[in-house]
Amino acid sequence: MILTSILTWAVVTLSSAFMRQSPDYEAPLENQMLMGALVQTTGETHRYWVKVTAEDYTGWVTEMSLQTLSDAEKDAYLEAPKWICTAEYARVREKPSERSVPLCDFTMGNIVRKADGCKDGWVELILPDGRKGWVLSHQVMDFRAWATSRSGLNTSDEVGRSFCAREVTSLACSFVGTPYMWGGNSIKHFDCSGLVKFCYFMNGIILPRNGREQIFTGESVKDGEWKPGDLLFFGTKKPLKVTHVALYLGDGKIVHSSQKVRINTLTEYGREVVGATRVLGNVDCGKGIKSIVKSPYYFPQYGD
Asked: Is 284 exposed, middle or buried (0-12, 13-18, 19+ CB in 10 A)?
C-alpha cells in the first residue's frame, strides 16, 4: 500500500543513493543522487521507500538514503557553510586520523555541512544524518567559494569558455575505464548522460539528467562547427530519437560512457550524429541550463 506523508523536504545521506522507477529493489534504476543534495518528497511512501523529486526528476529511494527536513530546517541547511568533496574518493572518519574508524565513504560532488574542528590537516564536518566526522582538508573545498569561482567561467567570454571546456573534458577523460551502469551519475558508475551531467556539475553547471532532454538545451551547433565541451547526440533524425550522448574533445574525438567510459574517434564509433548543443555561454539564459549558484536546491534564492 502506498501511503501519504506530510514530509516535504529531505537531504541525501549516502555517497550515491539509487533512485528507482518504482518502490522495489528489482525496479529499473533511474538515477543516482549524491550526498548532500536537497530533494522534495512527494508525500508517497511504500514500506521503507519514499518517492522524491530531485531537480525535476522523480523516483523512489529507500528511507535510509534520506534525512527528512522541515521547511525551517531546509532553509537553515541551504544557508549553512558547507564542504564539497573534490577528491575522487575519500573516507569520513570518526577522529582526525587515518587509523580512526570510518563512518562512510565520501566521493566527488558530495556536500556536507562544516563543523568547527581543524587539526593536523583534517577538517571536521557534519554528515546529513547529524553525525560528526573528519576528512583530510585537501579532499574538500568551501562549497560556496567553489561554486562562485566557477560561475564566471561559463560566460560568452572565449577565454573563460575555453578554460571551462578544458576542465570539463579533462575531468571526463580522468574517468576512462569507469564501468557503465544505466542510471549511473557518480564516480562509481556512469551512463552516457550521467557522465556529461556529472562533469558539468563539477564545473558549477546543472544540466538536465537525460540525453533526450539535454539536446533541447543550450545553443544548437551545426556539423563541423563543434568545439571541445559541446554535447554530441546519437540516434535517429527522423523521427528524432536520442539514444546516446558524448562530450566532444576536438580533432574528431569524443569521450563517452558506452560499456565503460572511453575515448573514441567519431570514425571508430561509427554512428550518426543527430544533433549537437553548446553549454558554455548559454548558462542562466533561459535555455534549460543553470549554474549551481542559481539553483534553489543548493543555495538560497532571494530574488532581485
From this structure: middle
Characterize the bridge pairing of strands 185-186 and 189-190.
Answer: antiparallel
The predicted-structure confidence for 219-235, as pLDDT tens digits, reads as follows 999 998 999 999 999 99
Q: At 33, which amino acid appears? A: M
Strand, helix or coil at 78?
A: helix
pTM of model > 0.90: yes
The span from the CA of 261 to the CA of 250, in Å, is: 17
> Taking Cα atoms as reference points, which of 165, 179, 92, 104 lies closest to residue 134?
92
- Residues 92-108 pLDDT 10s: 999 999 999 999 999 99
Domains of the chain (ranges; CATH) run 3-73 (2.30.30.40), 80-143 (2.30.30.40), 152-294 (3.90.1720.10)
Q: Which of 187, 165, 166 is nearest to 175 (CA)?
A: 187
Separation of alpha carbons 62 and 25, rounded Å: 9
